[in-house]
Amino acid sequence: MNCCCFKIFFAAFLLLNSANFQENFSNNAKQLLDGKIHKELADEMLSDDIGIQQGNDVKLMKPGSINLTLTLNKLEFEVCKRDCIGESKVCYESLNGLSDTNAVGSCSGLSSCEFKVKNDEEDNTLLFGEITHVRKSLFFGCLTSTMKYPLVEVLKNLEFESCDPKVNPADKMIKLQVIHLSSCPIIVKNAKIHVPEVASTKPPPTPNPIDSSLTASFPWWGILIIVFAFVLAGIGIAYCLFKKRQASKHANIKPTVSNTNVATLESPSKRKKES
Ligand SMILES: *[C@@H]1O[C@H](CO)[C@@H](O)[C@H](O)[C@H]1NC(C)=O
Ligand SMILES: CC(=O)N[C@H]1CO[C@H](CO)[C@@H](O)[C@@H]1O
């Protein structure tokens, strides 16, 4: 009888298992976890993005082109002296200043001007462009510079040549090319990663990928299988209980039943044993 109970439960278990519910559940759990970790911890390391959003700003992550929306209509780069131990270069599309070869720098051919910053270990400065050395002892934390033609004042009386950024007046978008990022992070202040217009006219994105995958992984036949498995398990339990009660009836009642009753029910062989 015990063996039979096991068989029934095992069949129910197999049914559930064959439907991949466990696998899908763990997949969903993994997705959930991945999403969380991605957001909270490993954004910078795992991301394939050229830039990532950090509050109101965008941190440039790796070489490539990226479109940004400049919320305040100005292109402002931030460099922090503690983080900048290498050298970085960014080209930004420009309007005025393209004739200034110093401002254009190595961005020639891209209709862009260059923002270049380098840690100069020897004289303990940050070098902006080719000639503008800013002594690190002159400032705390970070420096911001707003690109404009013909000069940017990065600190009082310290200027470098730059251009007016070409910001699309309709959507405040600017195109950047990150040329080089080597241990000198650059943050674009008051910027958002530009979302192309076409994306918003497409069918609206699924509100929550985790929710939709959860519902998608439970088709109607899946529910049917669960119900069937439960019914099977229920029948199994009922059957086992019934068998058990019958067994205990036989075991308990036999000795106390009156002889006359037993005589009519019992087989001849058993009667022989009792007598
Ligand atoms: C930036 O926007 C232009 C359209 O103005 C588009 O052609 C280009 O692919 C975009 N670049 C990126 C990296 O999104
Ligand atoms: C039973 C069930 O919903 N199985 C699904 C598990 O997930 C895969 C894809 O990840 C689906 O193809 C199965 O239909």
Automatic annotation (TrEMBL):
Top-level taxon in the UniProt lineage: Eukaryota
Keyword field: Membrane, Signal, Transmembrane, Transmembrane helix
Residues making up the signal peptide according to the UniProt record: 1-21
Ranges annotated as spanning the membrane: 218-242
Protein name, as recorded: Uncharacterized protein
Organism: Panagrolaimus superbus
